[in-house]
Structures are given as C-alpha cells and as structure tokens.
Amino acid sequence: MIWTIIIIAIILFLIFVVLVTRITIQFYFHHQQDNDDQMTVKLSAWFGLLRYTIDVPLISVDTDTASIHVEETTKMGAGDPANGKQKEKDFSPKEIWQSFQDTYELVRHVVGMHEIVRRMLARIEVKQLEWHSNIGVGDAAHTGMFVGVGWSIKGGVVGILSEYTELKAQPVLSITPYFQQTVSQTLIRCMFRFRIGHAMLAGIRIVKYWKGGRPKFKTRPLSVLSKEEKHESM
C-alpha cells in the first residue's frame, strides 16, 4: 500500500513538473538578396538542459516548377546543428495552397477558435523582438513607398503582439532605404516562452469545441527525404 502511494505521488509530481515546465523558443531568420537565407529555431527547457535545434541553411525557389526547396538540419542537445540529421523538403505551389485550405478547414471545425487562440496567446511571453530590414528597388520614389509599407507591416505586427501576448521587451525595429540600389535584406530575432500546461489546455479546448466529423484535409504527406535516403533512391 505504501509503495502504491509513493508511485502515485511520483507520477503526480512528474505530471506537475511537465505542466509547469516553460518552453523557450528562439527564432532567427536572415534573408540576403534572392537565394541566401538562413533560419534557425531553438527550443529549450529546464534552463537549457533540454535542447532541440532546427536549422534551415538554404531556402531556394525552383524556377522551373515554382516549388520551394528547403534543406533542414535537426539536432537534440547542444553542439553544432550541422552534425544533426539532415533532410531536404520540396513544397510545390499546390501543396502550399492546400495547406492554407486545410488551416481554414481546421478553423471551421472548431467553435470559438478565435477565443481559444486568444487565450493561448495571452499566456505567451515575448522576451525579445528584433527586426531589421534593408530595402532598395533602384528607384527613390518606389523605394520610399516600399519603406512606408514595411513600417506599416512592422507596426501592425508589434501592435498585434502588444494586444494579444505579454510583450516583455521593447521591440527593436529599423528599415534602411537604398534609393539607388536594388537591395533585399531582412534580419529577425525573437524569443518567446510559454508553459507546456497552457499549450495542452489549448489542445483540450480544441477537442472540446470540435464540431462535425473528421475534416477532409487536402494535403498529402510532403516530400521529405534525408540526404542518405535521397542518395539511396537515386
């Protein structure tokens, strides 16, 4: 009887630890002209004892098929992400469009989806937001127009974050215009944090307020091949 109580207590304690655990997500994106992109997503918990890194060193567009080609590296723990598991992904325009349709289908099947998302976002702490851009289209008038649009987009994003999340840090934003050159550069750094329990609660609410039968998703499993698998298939 005593051992049963001890085991139950340990299980309840572990569940409590998982629910209150904070997940920190660090997002980094750097766009340099046309085909020189870098995106890294780092997930960590328990003061960095648990780490998971997703590194996307190359994002390119196939001009023949208009599909997006992505090379991805994932790694558990610390160390160089380049030593992790490498994969290549191809996203065709049809698959991208179908993913938007599937998102709409999911929202349509959940009553009060906006309220569920709003409550989840309210639990997210934004610890860092840095967004720098260099814009130039070779014409001063058009460059000025794009700069204005850029500031409107950035202001809108900051406004949404201020409204729906806990914005803990002052956003650092900048746009540098290049009136006589064609320039397209963007650097985004952000870090946000939330508890696993809040994410699980949002999932439970989605299941609770689900309506209708199983949604008819249109996307098929995307073409994902590791470099080793791709080499073997050739």
Walk me through what this model shows.
- The chain has 234 residues and is α+β, with helices and mostly antiparallel strands.
- It has a domain at 110-211.
- The protein is 38% helix and 38% strand.
- The chain contains 6 helices and 10 strands, in the order H-E-E-E-E-E-H-H-E-H-E-E-E-H-E-H.
- It has helices at residues 2-20, 93-108, 113-122, 140-164, 196-208, 227-233; strands at 22-32, 36-45, 50-61, 68-76, 85-91, 125-137, 166-167, 172-177, 182-195, 223-226.
- Strand 2 and strand 3 (50-61) form a beta hairpin.
- The longest helix is centred in the middle third of the chain and has 25 residues, at 140-164.
- The N and C termini lie far apart (60 Å).
H/E element sequence: HEEEEEHHEHEEEHEH
Structural class: alpha+beta
Largest sheet: 10 strands, mixed
Number of helices: 6
Through-space gap between termini: 60 Å
Q: Give the helix proportion (percent range).
A: 25-40%
Mean pLDDT over the full residue set: 81
Question: What percent strand?
Answer: 35-45%
Q: Low-confidence stretches at least 5 residues in length (pLDDT < 50)?
A: 221-234
Radius of gyration: 22 Å
- Can you count the beta strands? 10
Shape: globular
Give a summary of the structure in a few sentences:
The chain is an alpha+beta fold. Helices cover 38% and strands 38% of the residues.
